[in-house]
Amino acid sequence: MKTVAIVLAAGKGRRMGGKVPKQYLELGGKPVIYYSLKTFEESFIDEVVLVCTEGEEEYCRKEIVIKYGFSKVVKIVAGGRERFNSVYNGLMASNGCDYVFIHDGARPFVTQHVLDRCLHYVEKYRAAVAAVPAKDTVKLENGDGFIKTTPDRSLVWLMQTPQVFDFHLIRDSYEKLTDQEERLRSAGVTVTDDTMVAKMFADVDAKLVESTYFNIKITTPEDLILAEAILQSGQVDK
Questions:
Q1: CA distance 41 to 27
Q2: Distance CA 231, CA 94 (A)
Q3: Residue 97 falls in which region: left (phi positive, over 0), alpha (psi -120 to 50) or beta
Q4: What is the pLDDT of residues 168-227, one digit of tens each?
Q5: Predicted model pTM
Q6: DSSP secondary structure string for all residues of 173-237
Q7: Given this model, what pLDDT does residue 18 score?
Q8: What is the set of domains in the chain, with CATH numbers?
Q9: What are 74-113's pLDDT values in tens digits?
């Protein structure tokens, strides 16, 4: 069995407000992207495809992959306009495998335990996603800023990554998405994660795999403060 991780590091980080993309910001003396790559390097994952912003390939090779000795990173490829374009580029760059782990490089605290659980469930269901039950009550608005409905909190989960799939299932689904990209954009359809693609084009529902609340995504300055606190707490590996 062969497993590949596609690590996405092509985000612009506009909500961070600075000039440095969030995946390269310093966290505990190392770039944010270092931590997830380290986890994959020390795991059962066979190969890693790193997807970065176009033009940053050489920087990633020298300052991330070579500097920190990530031998499992076999390819560094440019991302695209949207997240799903970057995932597609990563899938097309892969040499193929049985299962692919798609992970946001701005989530530094994914654990070996979560990877193990995701592998277990993807082998059974062909699609699995790390997620956590919602702690807060969630409201849906009516489009004008007023509450419309209140979903049952016991059924609400917050999606994380990795999102893990049978390789051929998700590759074929992304090829169909890419072929229909303009039609979907014209129809106002926004693709925000990989489980949507598997459902839309392969009619496969992903198995929810309970993760940890430490597996945060660094998107805003507040997230970086929280990440520093998590790192210093000793609850995650450095």
A1: 19
A2: 32
A3: beta
A4: 999 999 999 999 999 998 888 889 999 999 999 999 999 999 999 999 999 999 999 999
A5: 0.95
A6: HHHHHHHTHHHHHHTT----SHHHHHHHHH--PPEEEE--TT-----SHHHHHHHHHHHHHTSS-
A7: 55
A8: 3-233 (3.90.550.10)
A9: 999 999 999 999 999 999 999 889 999 999 999 999 999 9
Which residue do the tokens 């039950």 mark? 133
Asked if 88 and 180 count as a contact pair (C-beta separation under 8 A), the reply is no
Supply the DSSP string of 31-90, one letter for each residue: EHHHHHHHHHHTSS--EEEEEE-TT-HHHHIIIIIIHHT-TTEEEEEE--SSHHHHHHHH
H/E stretch holding 130 reads strand 127-133
Give which of 61, 76, 59, 58 is closest to 8, Cα–Cα.
76
Kindly compute the dihedral angle of the four CA atoms of residues 161, 61, 3, 114, in this order, to the nearest 10 degrees: -30
Q: How far is CA 26 from CA 5, 106, 108, 138, in A?
A: 23, 12, 12, 32
